[in-house]
Backbone:
């Protein structure tokens, strides 16, 4: 089964950004890295925040597209990472993507400029005991036909994010 590998920096960034949802409104952003398909894991090296023009509501989040494009360009220039998916919070205890989320992912899959084969979605929830001080991450792969939950592994700070990649 495909696994999602997050760099320690991405895990830390998500833990820092997710508590913004403590105000009752969802937040989120984009995920950048490498999706090796069936050949290997999905490696997430960068994540972006919502951006200044994002729309945040209790059961709705829409990222600031201009901000997302700039974050994606920076990641591509840094290490060749590509936009591979999205993350956002849910204010309820629902760890899976909503029907609205799935409609959004289908639009992304249908966009020929983005050229997604699948979308990686990370849904972030507050921990039942620690609230937003210890957010819980749930990863999903969506192809338009199949929604599958994926295991998440956080790479240690000294473990290179490309260690799991195969030959070029």
Residues:
């Amino acid at each position: 089964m495909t696994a999602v590998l997050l760099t320690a920096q991405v895990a830390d960034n998500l833990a820092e950004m997710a508590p913004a949802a403590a105000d009752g409104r969802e937040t989120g952003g984009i995920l950048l890295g490498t999706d090796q398909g069936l050949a290997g894991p999905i490696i997430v090296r960068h994540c972006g925040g919502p951006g200044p023009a994002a729309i945040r509501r209790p059961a709705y989040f829409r990222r600031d597209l201009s901000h997302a494009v700039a974050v994606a360009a920076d990641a591509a220039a840094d290490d060749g990472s590509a936009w591979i998916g999205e993350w956002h919070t849910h204010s309820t205890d629902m760890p899976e993507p909503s029907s609205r989320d799935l409609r959004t992912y289908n639009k992304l899959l249908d966009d020929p400029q983005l050229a997604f084969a699948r979308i990686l979605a990370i849904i972030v929830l507050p921990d039942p005991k620690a609230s937003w001080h210890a957010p819980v991450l749930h990863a999903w792969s969506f192809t338009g036909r199949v929604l599958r939950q994926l295991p998440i592994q956080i790479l240690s700070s000294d473990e290179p994010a490309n260690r799991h990649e195969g030959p070029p």
User: Anything to note?
Assistant: The CA atoms of residues 15 and 156 lie 15 Å apart. DSSP finds three helices and ten strands in the chain. The first helix runs from residue 8 to 17. The beta strands are 4-6, 28-35, 42-47, 55-57, 60-62, 82-89, 119-127, 131-142, 147-150, 152-154.
